[in-house]
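Annex B. Sample input.
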Amino acid sequence: MPGFDSKAPGFIIDWSKRAVAEHPKGLQPYEVSFYSKLPNERLSYVVFYEYDPATQHGYIYLPGRTDECYRLNVNSIFRGVEGNWFRAWRVWDDVARPLIAGAKLTASNSSRD
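Annex B, continued. Sample output.
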């Protein structure tokens, strides 16, 4: 693919690890939405993220052709690897982990109200 370097660090995916054949089952899925502001704010891209606290590794799913977000995503970025799970970039895990903890805390507190 022109302009795509599988050895370069990614924003959320560790491209050097390639697609994973299997990722751990039973992890909590999170839908991650990215918005752009050009020219007006709009939803631009959606991925699914699962974090395995036992291994401290996260996994990213890029929606494939049969997934609802596919058309939205490929209008923004098409890589030719959609429909696969990838290892998350360690920096993304470090950003996501406290957000997940905060979301769980908020959900726990609101269920007590």
